[in-house]
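S.,

Sequence below, as promised.
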Amino acid sequence: MLFVIFYMGLLVFSNAYDNVALHMPSYQSYPYKGNVIYDAANAVDGLKSNLSIDGGQCVVSAAGYETATWRVDLLSVHYIDHITLYFMTNNQHWDELNTRISSYLGFSLYVSNSTDRLNGILCFKDIEYNKSTIPEVFNTTCRMFGQYIIYYNERLPGVDYPSDYNDDAENDLCEVEVYGCPTLNPDCDVWDPMMCACLVCKPSYMDMEPHHETTDWPVGSYGYYYDEMCGHCKDPTQCSPGTGICLTGCSAGYFGPSCKEECHIGNYGYNCNETCGHCNDLSQCSTTNGICHTGCSYGYTGGLCKKECNIGLYGFGCYDTCGHCIDPAECNHVSGTCRTGCAAGYRGRLCIEHCYVGHYGYNCNETCGHCFDPAQCSNVSGTCRTGCEAGYSGRLCKNECNIGLYGFGCYDTCGHCIDPAECNHVSGTCRTGCAAGYRGRLCIEHCDVGHYGYNCNETCGHCFDRAQCSNVSGTCRTGCEAGYSGRLCKNECDIGLYGVLCYDTCGHCIDPSECNYVTGTCRTGCAAGYRGRLCIEHCDIGHYGYNCNETCGHCNNATQCSTVTGTCQTGCEAGYSGRLCKDGSCYFFFFYILLEIWVVFLISNYFEGNQLSFYT
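The prediction came back faster than expected:
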């Protein structure tokens, strides 16, 4: 009867969990302004009537950090049943318009026996809440042993967080309540921390039946008659004789209060707190030691398959060698892909394929230059191993020949182009034609005799020696032929001049403009009074007129016949009259005789002193 009363007492005590965090030491990583009004202790002061930032009942952390940590020290290891969090609401309605909500999304809760959360057990990790679903008072069951309760959140660079999350990590909590068993009663001989009850009291405290006063029950059994087998306790002597609970935890491969449940697939070790590595078959991960019985999945090695392949290796068993990655450390240990691209000369997903002909460099993104043989372009550096095509130079054969050079190796000198920059760097042809004095495709041939100028398109003038016509300027170096003048000997002599250098004066041509500028001959004949090829000879006596074609009349003195007009300057012979003395008459002859007599008479009287009047 006494045992029944005792067991019922246990049932009553088992539901009497206390807030073991109340007024316990607390800590936060980045305090806000160092002011006590925002202190970490506000979350375990038992006050939660004012949930605003400046109400003095909430923890406030500094903004602008990538991580935020708050923790409470329970001072000794306790059995934890559940945890309650009161978030800061700023005393506003808790909905998606509340600006505080986004800072809590993604938070985690750890239970640990040290201040390092990574040495503890993850109790809760938010991966589902958003602004509309996260509660303002959060509860989670967390049945495990521990001394430190750690609240953690992060906003790490390079991580793509949901749109509801804020930018900074914060730990603004108004109250954290940790419900679990209080510390051991000093009057208890055997304490069950999960039941929060004394299984066996000290003899001085309660007079119980002999087999309840002793702790000498069979190891490995429990129950009133010790007919229940304990689970896989880490320490078999620490199996609770009343409940079968393993007081110091489970041996490797088991979990639960009684350590009778095998680890779930993917977990192993004491209390199943370890996570299996990358086993090829996760169901073949040993729940005891985590060894992968069927080997590792792609990219991992070692007995626990937690070690990534060494740099330069990948794949199943890490047997495959990475390709030519720019950075060998960036070869994906699972697939072998090069995360930062291929080294010079290689392409493809695995960077094991050589560049196509005509390409080189990182990821084969560069195009080869003008190699003489494209197949001899180095896929790594782009160097043309057998030289360049005509017209190009340099290691990569991407440089056109310098102005004035062309051909293979740019060793050939361009001809006489009008514009040297227009010499084709490949063939040497002058795209805009040849300079003065040269012709041909390459403009290296001198003009033929008698030609000069650009592309030899000009014809030399009347040079005295055609071979002495400059093929550049057309200048006649040894002078002009007769009848021409000027530097190019293309100008005919001026009217009235002829011959070499036009130094000779034309004769008496009928038309001076018809004086041949070469020979001086008068093409339309001589002017009156002149004859001969050059019209510079006077007419013979007895002739006059154009080309001296006219015969003088009966001049009294033949030498006095004008060679120009035929006029007899001293009169006509007897019997002739007229300006040209070509008209014959008796009357005139008689008159002429009388005139002569009269003249003789006058002369004789003059000498005799007699003066006669013509009218007397």
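The chain has a mean pLDDT of 87.

Coffee later?
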